[in-house]
Amino acid sequence: MEANPVLCKVKLLFLSKESGCFTLLRSSICTPAKFLTVGESKSARCDDLESLKKRNCAVTKIENPRGSISINENKPVTNRKKDSADKLNPGQITQIQPQKLTLTLRTGEPQTFDLKFKRAEDYPIDLYYLMDLSFSMKDDLENVKNLGTDLMAEMQKITSDFKIGFGSFVEKTVMPYISTTPARLINPCTGNQNCTSPFSYKNVLKLTDKGDEFNRLVSQQQISGNLDSPEGGFDAIMQVAVCGEHIGWRDVTRLLVFSTDAGFHFAGDGKLGGIVLPNDGKCHLENNMYTMSHYYDYPSIAHLVQKLSDNNIQTIFAVTEEFQPVYQELKNLIPKSAVGTLSSNSSNVIKLIIDAYNSLSSEVILENTKLPEGVSITYKSICKNGVEATGENGRKCSNISIGDEVSFKISIDSQKCPSHSKNETIKIRPLGFTEEVEIVLNFICDCQCAKEGEPESEKCHEGNGTFECGACKCNEGRIGRLCECSKDEVRTEDLDANCRKDNGTDICSNNGDCVCGTCECKKRENPAEIYSGKYCECDNFNCDRSNNKLCGGHGRCECRKCICDANYTGSACDCSLDTSTCLAKNGQICNGRGTCECGICKCTDAKFQGPTCEICPTCPGVCVEHKDCVQCRAFGAGEKKDTCQRDCDYFKMFKVKDRDGLPQPTDQSFPLTHCKQRDENDCWFYYTYAIRNQTKEVFVVEQLECPAGPDIIPIVAGVVAGIVLIGLALLLIWKLLMIIHDRREFAKFEKEKMNAKWDTGENPIYKSAVTTVVNPKYEGK
């Protein structure tokens, strides 16, 4: 069956089983019958929009269906306060916007829309307290008996619409989880403990807004017992999730508080009791008791995750510190769940519930239902303070307070048409919330021209095909561009002769296939590269290149020859006829010292170089070059004063009174050079040099600036004063040195004087003139 192009995909071509058409991504189709040139295949009708325009396909004849977004329901998010007089039903509160959209998807063309979420204040809450009543929880039960009124009072601070329920669980009522002896079935506890018969799960109190009713019924509960440490809590969680009518769940925030001091059984553990049937995930409550615990195994974690998510239930695990690690791992597997540490007697359960609720409600996580085959979805979050995230983190925002508004950019893309329905429906919702966004997906899989085809058209050789999208789609057994040949009657050798150029040996120049005596050129991997011609002898990609670009990027390749754009020439269109790139600063082409060839200056003066022949490493500057001529013409001096008339008449000269009269660069539309030069008398003269309209102009200041002669008197006075001052300084220095020398000599003398030693001993022949006599009789009276 002959293929016909309808939609287009980049690089990837495939035959649509549904329409029998080649499909190309992100491309358009040109529908006129005479659009194709000789040798071009039918799929050459498919190309991007700009390429089809360049190939002279009228815009009105190009079919290019696009995707679109239509918002069907767009109620604004609810803005209200807790103390507002207007009390709304849960169904009247909107936290997510929009609510319903229709997306028309074209393959490879994603559609993006914005989704807004805002936490409503005073949003209703349902809380179901599910408690382990095995014997180890005896002291916890006493504290939970007054939980109803106390928790109700605390939750009133968060919402004015709060309901609470209660349920309990122990274990499957078969061995080896419990003792099945008659006495133990009546009282499973040992000693003098009075316990109730074991049970799997019991719904004690349906959700109610009466806290005292909660206290009354919980006060009537009794502890039970079992044999092993793990409990049957998963059975209870499953029934709470799926038995909505028995529990009394509303379409509001749903919280399940799971309180225990032990681990849990899960799928497969039921084999110990001879239970092999997998949990069916259905409600089996009779008289508020789970009746199939002996028949169905425990649910798996994945099964629980699915049911909790389907029913928008957020789980709070209130467990003792010993089992914190186990339930932390379980929390990581269950979205929108939290774990709190329960004290040994559950005295902190209210604070635990409030903290866990605040943690859960401060995070929004988007999830979507199963996507159709070939459809993908990406998220980008814009959270508080403009914080953005993509990938998996793009699905969620954290630390959201009541009244905060966050948004998400959601892109949905399709890579292929669905094999069955042409429209699908998916839903997006925040985990733990009942509200959702419904998205209807419509797929563009056919062009309009294919639907308007002419069956058994006379344009297709006696009605042997359907004429659609400007080409024939042949009936079974017919081939050829116009379906003119029959597969059974045609002789290949005869037809191949019509496909050889100049009776050569190559069929269709080895670039195509001979179909019914006509060459149909091959398609290349790059759809922009095309074979054409009666014998596929032409192409648009084998022309000369420049700078690694086909035809230098300044022309198009037709039948292996470059057709250059305006202002370009050469075999590779690499020679520009534009001379603007050759203009020097003085406005001359190549500075008047070269020729412009293909937009590049070829300097004829060997001294000059550069892109515009303005660089001359061995040349003096403009000022130095014209100094002598300006000096001789303006002041009649300089080295050329004798040959001035002969050598210096190449410019026009204008004299001005002072430097302020010289032209300024900002006042001119042509290059201007300011010069300052000095003559042999050390006098300065100022001038400007410019070329305007090919005329060289010099403006010169008529007065020289010469330095004034030296003043002799101050110089002589200064010299004399200097000599006198130097003499006085020398005398002062000499006097200072002499004083220092004298002081040092005097100090030396004093030191030697102090060190002199004189003999101080007594004369040995010296006798004192005084004689002392002592009276022996003297008694001191």
From TrEMBL:
<dbReference type="GO" id="GO:0030027">
    <property type="term" value="C:lamellipodium"/>
</dbReference>
<feature type="transmembrane region" description="Helical">
    <location>
        <begin position="712"/>
        <end position="734"/>
    </location>
</feature>
<feature type="disulfide bond">
    <location>
        <begin position="521"/>
        <end position="536"/>
    </location>
</feature>
<dbReference type="GO" id="GO:0019960">
    <property type="term" value="F:C-X3-C chemokine binding"/>
</dbReference>
<feature type="disulfide bond">
    <location>
        <begin position="189"/>
        <end position="195"/>
    </location>
</feature>
<dbReference type="GO" id="GO:0098639">
    <property type="term" value="F:collagen binding involved in cell-matrix adhesion"/>
</dbReference>
<feature type="disulfide bond">
    <location>
        <begin position="603"/>
        <end position="613"/>
    </location>
</feature>
<dbReference type="InterPro" id="IPR032695">
    <property type="entry name" value="Integrin_dom_sf"/>
</dbReference>
<keyword id="KW-0966">Cell projection</keyword>
<feature type="disulfide bond">
    <location>
        <begin position="516"/>
        <end position="551"/>
    </location>
</feature>
<feature type="disulfide bond">
    <location>
        <begin position="460"/>
        <end position="472"/>
    </location>
</feature>
<feature type="disulfide bond">
    <location>
        <begin position="616"/>
        <end position="619"/>
    </location>
</feature>
<dbReference type="GO" id="GO:0007229">
    <property type="term" value="P:integrin-mediated signaling pathway"/>
</dbReference>
<feature type="domain" description="Integrin beta subunit VWA">
    <location>
        <begin position="20"/>
        <end position="447"/>
    </location>
</feature>
<dbReference type="InterPro" id="IPR012896">
    <property type="entry name" value="Integrin_bsu_tail"/>
</dbReference>
<dbReference type="GO" id="GO:0005178">
    <property type="term" value="F:integrin binding"/>
</dbReference>
<feature type="disulfide bond">
    <location>
        <begin position="564"/>
        <end position="573"/>
    </location>
</feature>
<feature type="disulfide bond">
    <location>
        <begin position="474"/>
        <end position="483"/>
    </location>
</feature>
<feature type="disulfide bond">
    <location>
        <begin position="559"/>
        <end position="590"/>
    </location>
</feature>
<keyword id="KW-0460">Magnesium</keyword>
<keyword id="KW-0965">Cell junction</keyword>
<dbReference type="Pfam" id="PF07965">
    <property type="entry name" value="Integrin_B_tail"/>
</dbReference>
<feature type="disulfide bond">
    <location>
        <begin position="629"/>
        <end position="706"/>
    </location>
</feature>
<keyword id="KW-0732">Signal</keyword>
<feature type="disulfide bond">
    <location>
        <begin position="596"/>
        <end position="601"/>
    </location>
</feature>
<keyword id="KW-1133">Transmembrane helix</keyword>
<dbReference type="InterPro" id="IPR015812">
    <property type="entry name" value="Integrin_bsu"/>
</dbReference>
<feature type="disulfide bond">
    <location>
        <begin position="648"/>
        <end position="683"/>
    </location>
</feature>
<feature type="disulfide bond">
    <location>
        <begin position="30"/>
        <end position="46"/>
    </location>
</feature>
<dbReference type="InterPro" id="IPR057073">
    <property type="entry name" value="EGF_integrin_2"/>
</dbReference>
<dbReference type="GO" id="GO:0008305">
    <property type="term" value="C:integrin complex"/>
</dbReference>
<keyword id="KW-1003">Cell membrane</keyword>
<feature type="disulfide bond">
    <location>
        <begin position="485"/>
        <end position="499"/>
    </location>
</feature>
<dbReference type="GO" id="GO:0001968">
    <property type="term" value="F:fibronectin binding"/>
</dbReference>
<dbReference type="GO" id="GO:0045202">
    <property type="term" value="C:synapse"/>
</dbReference>
<feature type="domain" description="Integrin beta subunit tail">
    <location>
        <begin position="623"/>
        <end position="711"/>
    </location>
</feature>
<dbReference type="GO" id="GO:0033627">
    <property type="term" value="P:cell adhesion mediated by integrin"/>
</dbReference>
<dbReference type="GO" id="GO:0042470">
    <property type="term" value="C:melanosome"/>
</dbReference>
<feature type="disulfide bond">
    <location>
        <begin position="417"/>
        <end position="675"/>
    </location>
</feature>
<dbReference type="GO" id="GO:0007517">
    <property type="term" value="P:muscle organ development"/>
</dbReference>
<keyword id="KW-0130">Cell adhesion</keyword>
<feature type="disulfide bond">
    <location>
        <begin position="538"/>
        <end position="543"/>
    </location>
</feature>
